[in-house]
Amino acid sequence: MASAFFPLLLFLSILSLLFPFISSSNSPTTIPLSLFNTNPNQDFYQKLTHLASVSLARAHHIKNSQDSSVSKIPLYPHSYGGYSITLGFGTPPQKMSFIMDTGSSFVWFPCTKKYQCSKCPVSSQNIPTFVPKLSTSAKVVGCLNPKCSWIHPKTNPKSRCQDCQSPNTSNCKQVCPPYIILYGAGSTGGLGIVETLNLPNKKIPNFLVGCSLFSSQQPAGIAGFGRGISSLPNQLGAKKLSYCLVSHRFDDTSKSSMLVLDSSNEKSANLSYTPLLKNPVVARRNALLEYYYVGLRKITVGGQKVKIPYHYLTPNSKGDGGTIVDSGTTFTFLNHGIFEPVMSAFVNQVKGFSRTEKIEKLTGLRPCFNVSGHKTVSLPELKFHFKGGAEMALPLANYFSIVGEKDVICLTMVTDRDSGSELSTGPSIILGNFQMQNLFVEFDLKNEKFGFRQQVCK
Ligand SMILES: *[C@@H]1O[C@H](CO)[C@@H](O)[C@H](O)[C@H]1NC(C)=O
Ligand SMILES: *[C@@H]1O[C@H](CO)[C@@H](O)[C@H](O)[C@H]1NC(C)=O
Ligand SMILES: *[C@@H]1O[C@H](CO)[C@@H](O)[C@H](O)[C@H]1NC(C)=O
């Protein structure tokens, strides 16, 4: 399946040559963002089915993430319907592609020529790896380095660094213990290194990045953009992160848009804002700290309010509930108790088309309507209403997708099969990237707010 890799855009290298090195620049850093899809050969049914199932698998993981073990960093399976960026690490820079993931906070790449990947969509030999030996700036993170505690936040240096017990710790040669990251269906592991990250307009020395020596089910490294200390925006000191996701055209390999990391205070035009929230319950559940929570207050379908039990919309005393924005999820996940009334609202309001159970079974999506023979189809508007009054009216293509021979359309959101499942923990709503197509979104990290506007992304 080597051919399954989409060609990734390499603008970054060209930009690096054009832009001189600016050390303390306040100007925004701009990185091309492309769709990442390792399965371009699948037909429509397979793709939708696949995306529905990976969206559910990711929801399982996000909702059940626990950090019981000290060497475990929350990290997530990236759906193949994700978005990727290319970053240059090392001196001279080696270019690597990463899945852009706002649902996790660690940055890692496949590393060394010995890298092993099991159950990968591409064989190990065909996965590009970072080679530390070829870089003059790569350094293994020492055990007493404060960045080692970013990897192992729960252990104190005394128990972590057994060889460094003597009062004179300047002799300590022990390296930071390896990380092992587990997720729903797979894992990765390796050593933390500090390396120079070469961005188009600046170099970031001593960037903490994982040199993974083995993984399973990972077609590329992951760049964590979450709220944790080791995430890419945090290591850069970015005040704002923004992007506009190009549309999911499954046959379109060449489009990309820009991801912008900004350290200025410039205001963006025409954005509707809602506060970024923190889950108040973090004891023993550090994973919940990483997520970008927003206050979704109401969902309307065709202008009518959908009845959603309030307890889903705010994290409860255990930290369960609430809404997160997650670039690594494809189709938005709604807890059963939210999905059912939303689906009923569509079923009740869409008149003149019959539901097709055959396609619903085939794709795992519902409802699906047979629109055969109709030149135009009008569907009720789907709107998310946020705390503070911001309203997100979704473009139709963000919540209904044409399936097969253009005669069936399906709602592109997913849920767990039954209400009693384990998915009742964690966030109730995971806003996925499919619903964010052709929206400009901004995470204002300094002022803790989330902004968006409709825009054709290009
Ligand atoms: C610690 O060890 C280093 C290297 O052996 C030595 O240079 C330094 O003087 C020692 N410091 C103390 C406080 O003993
Ligand atoms: C902001 O809105 C105004 C008025 O609708 C429009 O002319 C302008 O192009 C918009 N700017 C951006 C950046 O979307
Ligand atoms: C949709 O309806 C048309 C006409 O009634 C029918 O021929 C076709 O088989 C239906 N398609 C599906 C997928 O059910």
From TrEMBL:
Protein name: Aspartic proteinase nepenthesin-2-like
Active site, renumbered: 101, 326
UniProt family annotation: Belongs to the peptidase A1 family.
Keywords of this entry: Aspartyl protease, Glycoprotein, Hydrolase, Protease, Signal
Key word Iron present: no
A GO MF term: aspartic-type endopeptidase activity
Pfam families cross-referenced by the UniProt entry: TAXi_C, TAXi_N
Gene3D superfamilies, sorted: Acid Proteases
Superkingdom of the source species: Eukaryota
Peptidase A1 domain: residues covered: 83-453
Signal peptide: 1-24
